[in-house]
Amino acid sequence: MANHKSALKRIRSSEKKRQRNRIFRSRARTEIKKARTFIEGADLENARQATLEAIRTLDKAAVKGILHPNNVARRKSRLMKKLARLEAEKA
Q: Comparing C-alpha atoms, which of 48, 54, 52, 47 is closest to residue 30?
């Protein structure tokens, strides 16, 4: 356990940040999972909605510095590729 006052404060503040970041990271994962489920289920309209929502939550996480922008870009790209493939199959 830390002994210095500043180290103890650092522990408290980093724990608060960890808890707050966990919410956004978890929400992003959930939205991505929903989008993938709709895409795999070939439900085009719901897949579009879920993909847009997933992209929105990923962007929020990137703006807040919770996820790295390149990580967010990669995840968005993969989701959009899957959605585009589904749209091509439906067309």
A: 54
